[in-house]
Amino acid sequence: MATALILGLRCCILACIAVGMLLAEHLQNAVNETWAWLLQQWWFNSVYFETVWAPVCFTVLLVPMYRLIDSIPLFDRYKIDKKHRFIPFTALEMLKTGVFYMAPLALLDTFMVKHYKGCGIDPMVWKIKRQTWVQTTRALPAEPPSVALIPIHIVCALVVFDMFFFLVHYSLHKNAWLYKTFHALHHDHATVDIHVTNQLTVVERIVLILSANEGLKIVNSHPLTRAIYVPIFLWLLMENHCVYDWPWGLDKLVPFGLMGGPARHFAHHVQGSGNYAPFFTYLDKLVKRTNGHSRKIGS
Ligand SMILES: *[C@@H]1O[C@H](CO)[C@@H](O)[C@H](O)[C@H]1NC(C)=O
Ligand SMILES: [Zn+2]
């Protein structure tokens, strides 16, 4: 049953990719038009766009989505923790995390010039921007991104983020002082829950955002790709803490068990160790193998 579902879904995904390739020109046209429209919006040109965009995706899209999922009794059977109930986000909680999240980033936005490399922006524009102290607009490329590069860049940026954050997360668990100071808060909960996604120390959250940003920068992603990346990235982080083990989850859809998924991250929270990588599994497998190997040599 489950395998038939996965097989069917994989065929659907492949069919969608094939149709997307056939309609590439139309899709590119839509991307071009979207980009031309975005370039004319003051809010998209603002240096604060990305800083505000993440909480907007979180509050307007993702929290209501998980609330809806929780209200459907049919899905209860997929709960990892059967007793779990969705606790609504209070306005105060949203406001508090919103402010804590945005304040340090808004500071960076105001005083640092944003460089979107590899999209054909004249470096002269950055030089001119650097002559003023306070930034209000970001230098955006005139050209839209290539439609094929959008998903490729998103996947690559996720892989790079996963690698960076694996190293950080692993260190946070292996050093007692680091753990206590920066990461214990994320593990301080009665049950795992999407609220835990956001339960981060300021330093930890900044490292997380910088790692995500670095992933996007390394692949020279276009600002439109960056904007599309945000809800996907947040959704993946929330999935990890959503307490549902979907039979159609990415951990089952993506072949070779490449993706970790909610059940593995739940295990990390229950055991307090293992499954350190946020999205993929290969690094934890590598560590496990290396540790097993050195233990064998040691004995
Ligand atoms: C989209 O824009 C690019 C760059 O401006 C242009 O080269 C390309 O022909 C456009 N494609 C479509 C399908 O409109
Ligand atoms: Zn942890």
Automatic annotation (TrEMBL):
Compartments where found: Membrane
Domain Fatty acid hydroxylase: 155-287
Superkingdom per UniProt: Eukaryota
An annotated GO BP: lipid biosynthetic process
Principal subcellular localization: membrane
Residues of the signal peptide: 1-24
Keyword Transferase belongs to the record: no
Record keywords, A-Z: Membrane, Signal, Transmembrane, Transmembrane helix
Cellular component, GO, one term: membrane
GO terms of molecular function: iron ion binding; oxidoreductase activity
PANTHER family linked to this entry: STEROL DESATURASE
Protein name: Cholesterol 25-hydroxylase-like
Protein's organism: Lingula anatina
